[in-house]
Each structure stands twice: as C-alpha cells, then as structure tokens.
Amino acid sequence: MNDGNYPETDLVDAASELDWGLTEVDLFSSALGWRRLLTRADPDDAESDWLQEWNDTDVERDDQRKELSSLMLTIDYVSTDWGRIDPGQKREWQEWSGRIRNLLNGIGDPLTRTPAVRAVAAVADNVASSYLDTLEILATLLDQHVDAQLQMSQLESQVSQLEEQAASLRRGNRDLEGEIARLKAARARSPKKAKVVIPSKTVVIRSPAQQEIIRLMGQEGLGRSWRIADLVVKEGLGQKRSVNNAVTRLTKKELIEDYHRDGKSIRWKCTTGGSRRLIILTERGSAWYRQAYGREPVESEIVWAARAHRSAVHGVGILEARDHLRAVGYQVDDDPEAILEYQDERWRRRVEPDLIVQMDGESWPVEVQREVSQRLLKKWEKVLALTGRLALILFNVAHREKQEYLLRRVRRLPKGTIYLTSLEEMEAGDWEWVVIRSPIRH
C-alpha cells in the first residue's frame, strides 16, 4: 500500500494498465491533483509557500473547492455504482465512501493542511487498495471459473465414454440374447436322437437341414416344398439349392415322397412355368419322426387341403392365398362357416367361401379360382346378393385380367363391390386389389 509518498506517475500508470474505466481514472486524477498541490507544502512550516498559494486569490480557492466537490461526487458515484453491481458488498462500499468523505472534509480549511496532506494521500491509498482487492477477487473468480469449465469438460468426456461403453454393452447383450434364442430354438428343433432303428433298417440323419425338413413336416404339417425351403433358409441352415438337395436325399432315403392321387404324383403351379413338389412323410418318415422327436406327426396340410376342397391343387391355391393375405396383415379364417341367407334355415340359399378375410371392419368372402368361366358368374351373383361384397383371387395375372373383363361386361350383377387380384401378383410381393363396383353402367 501507498505510504503517502509514492510518485504520481505510478498511480497514473496503474490506472492505465488495469483499465479501470473513466470513473476510476477521474477519481485518481482528482486525488492526484490535490496531492500535487498539498505535497508541495512543508507540513512543519506554518509560513510555507503552500499556505501563501492557498490564500492568493478567492478565484483560485473557488476553483479548488469545485475540484474537491467534483472529487466527492465522483466518490459517491463509484460507491453507488459498485453497490448496485455487487449488492452483497453495498454496505462496505457505503462505509468506504464515508471514510473518504471524512478525510476530504478536512481539506477545505488551510489551518488543517497537515492532516489534509495525509488525507489526500489516504484517498489515493484507499482507492488503489479497494480496486486492487476487487481485481484480486475477480482474478480468483476467473481462475475458479476456468477450473470449473475444465472439470466440466473432463466430466462430459467421461460421461460420453461411459455412454459409449453402455451402448456397446447393450449391443453385446442383444447379440448374446439373440444367440441364446437361436441356440434354444435349434435345440428345440433338434431330434432327441439322430440314429433311429426302423423295422429292418437303421436310418441316420445328421444334417441339420434334413432334420429341420422332417421336423417342419411332422410338427407343422407342411407339405409345400417351396415354403419348407424358405423356412430352412431363414433359419440359416443352408441356401435354396442345398435345401432342395436335402429334400432329394430324404426322398432317396424313403422318408418323404410326392403327394399322390389315384396313383399319380400331384404337383402345383400358379403360372405357366415349372411345377412345384407337394411332399408328405412316408410311413418310414413318420416312424423316424416319432422315434426321433417322441411324438406323433400331425396331418399334412396337403392331405387336409385335398380333402377339404376336393382337389389338392385348388386346396394348395387356397393355402397360398391365406398365407399371402396374412403376410400383409389381414386376419384370415381358413375354415369358415357357410354364409346363410337366413341363420335359422340352413336349407335356404347359402354360399360357402374358401376363406373369410377381415377388411375395413367387415367380413369379406374370398373365392380362389384356378380357371375363368362364364358359368361361374351365377355363383358370384349369389355371393353379392347375400353379402354385397366379394374378393376373387385368380391363379395368375392373365386369368385375373380375363375375369375382370367378364365382370365389367355383366349388366345384371347385384349391387356390391368386388375385389380382384392373383396369386402370381401376391407372390411377386407388389400387389393391390382391383376394385369393381356393381351394377356397372355401360
């Protein structure tokens, strides 16, 4: 701190370097102006030149009093402004302002010049001390702020690392759960034993693909070879070609065979291309499944479809339509009751649809047709008369277009709505209903 004698240039340089602002510089300059005047006097000489200068003229004294008054106003401004900026130290600034005022009040009387010299020096010291203390506090707060930001950055980095680790663990956990589910499913599919003794013959099946084919046929009753192949491939047990080869090997082992009707092998197709195998378990295949899995095989879907619909080919077409409709979210009843004109009179007019599908909150009768014929129009008339709606699914696009052409030429259809599509379009995966509303105006 200042002892009352350090050079005026030091205070001016300090004000400039610390950039205290106009208010602070004015305060120091005013204080220094008084100090330059008063320190020329010798405190011990009552007849000093300073006293003579003080009494030279009234004008000079008035100017000096104005300068002193300006200094006191500046002190009041600084005290009030800092009290507003830092309300917590408002009282301390008010006390500081009071001390400075008391010191400056003694300057107005020349007879008190000795304490006045000390007062002005004390003013400079007080101001410098207060601002230096404030700057030290601000510097400390700034350091703390920088440290806090650094710590926050480090914490954010640690949190980010922990989040990445957690995400990695979650991914690993999902992968592990998926692998556990896959292993459980594979274990559930696996036969209790791969080596089975069938009367007069021992049959060993070690291929997972062949085991899965037998399981799907015995447990699920599947018989459409292309659907079986798709499921085996989906389980990751081989590619389409290798699965087809597995079907061939099982046929050679006499565990499966083609579905026959009247001694003739029945195959299925919906387009003019190559046909597809319809397969069932042989007696030997059923025996192998029974011993390997410890349960009776269920009835084949091919046998059920042929019995329920009087034709294996037509029945398989209905199964295909059912599965395609379910694949896009429709609710389908594949064994529907007959639709009666009068519920309590079963001998009256009725229709027996192949399927019932729920669309827009309504039950729609579905008819799956292999061929297109003029004679079937009466059947469609009866369905429309009873329900007002009908969904027709033809085997291929050519038949669907032909059926649409015939329906649009009919004048006597009852009022209703007909939806049309084909198994060929459904199988391609990009299909929509063709809509016909009757009666049709020509």
Characterization of the model:
The protein is built from 15 helices and 16 strands. 58% of the residues lie in helices and 14% in strands. It is elongated, with a radius of gyration of 52 Å. The N and C termini lie far apart (112 Å). The protein folds into three domains: 8-148; 195-309, Orthogonal Bundle (Arc Repressor Mutant, subunit A); 312-438, Trna Endonuclease, Chain: A, domain 1. With 442 residues, the protein is an alpha+beta fold. The strands form six sheets. A six-stranded mixed beta sheet has the order 9-12-13-14-15-16. Strands 1-2 form a two-stranded antiparallel sheet. The protein has a two-stranded antiparallel ribbon with strand order 3-8.
| Amino- and carboxy-terminal Cα gap | 112 Å
Q: State the total count of DSSP E strands.
A: 16
Instruction: Give the strand content.
Output: 5-15%
Supply Rg.
52 Å
Strand order of the largest sheet: 9-12-13-14-15-16
Query: Mean pLDDT score, rounded?
Result: 77
Work out the helicity level: 55-70%
Number of helices: 15
Which regions contain 5 or more consecutive residues with pLDDT less than 50?
1-48, 109-115
Q: Summarize the main sheet.
A: 6 strands, mixed
Coarse structural class: alpha+beta
Number of domains: 3
